[in-house]
Amino acid sequence: MDNKTVIKTLNKLLQGQYMGIHSYGEFIHNLDDASPLRDKFISIQKDLKHHADLLSHTIQELHGKPVTSEGAIGKMELFVSQIIDRSHDDKEILKHAIKGENLYGIKMTEELVHDKLDAESLHLVHEILEKQREHVDILKAELHE
């Protein structure tokens, strides 16, 4: 596998992690201080930061330069979602978080990495995806309480 392709793919995944970190920051900001979701969202955001660190480290090990933000497209998507999806209701925030995890966190990652990573990088991405699936399960359980 070509290192440039692996680095480029990992950087796109890293941008996605930054987008998730910022999205959860917005969710946390929009939750009432007394919301039982607050601690769960902070924990998920912490996981996303950890994933970003792991991806950055892997990119550096491959002699690449990790991106440091979600990029212009990610910033635009985040901006638009803040305008359109502005909800302060816990159930609505949960639904947006689940949609983001499923669509951007899992589905797009699976499509992005297809045949573009070496075995070690692919293993890392599978670990990240497994954690994101756990996030979805946690969020869905909260939605149905």
Automatic annotation (TrEMBL):
> Which stretches make up the DUF2383 domain?
6-112
Entry coiled-coil feature ranges: none
One of this protein's Pfam families, by short name?
DUF2383
Q: Which CDD domains match?
A: Ferritin_like (cd00657)
Xref: Gene3D superfamilies: 1.20.1260.10
Q: What is this protein called?
A: DUF2383 domain-containing protein
> Which organism's genome codes for this protein?
Metabacillus lacus
